[in-house]
Structures are given as structure tokens and as C-alpha cells.
Amino acid sequence: MVGPVSVAGDLHAPPVERTIMETPMVEIDKVNLWYGLKQALKDVTMSMSKHRITAYIGPSGCGKSTLLLLLIVVLLNLFAIATRNRLRRKYASSAV
Length: 96
Description:
The chain is α+β, with helices and mostly antiparallel strands.
């Protein structure tokens, strides 16, 4: 690895009510990512809707794989937090 990795931006599900085909599963807003001093992603904004196939294309080295890896890391961390919280609730209720 080149150096420390830092990320700035916001990953969220917007509160706007939309039809199921328009509802984003993931929305990325102005995400930036650096590997040390090298900026790999700059102000990336996009959304991926439920029940839709989303593809993004671009030239080699523009950050497509980096963005996917970032999303995987974020989703795995969210899954780990949800699992840990579920286990805490399960064992807390069985201890009573």
C-alpha cells in the first residue's frame, strides 16, 4: 500500500419518497478517496436504484474498481455492525 487511505463524502439513503423503481439502494454524494497523497476518487456522485441494473463505464484507471471496493468495505462494515447488534440483543434478552 502506498500510504494511509482516507475517505471523505457521504453514503446515504435519501429520505425522498419515490416509487419502488426509483428508490435508491445506495446513493453516493461527493465521495473522495486518497491513497496517501494520490487522489483516487474525486467528488463521485451516483445512485443505484432497487430493481435496476446499474453499470458504470470509464477509461482505464478512472477509479471504477476503487469505487466498487470502497462500497464493498462500507457494506461489509454495516453488515458487521448489524450482526453485532443483533447478537447483543439476543444474548441480552436471554440473560434476563
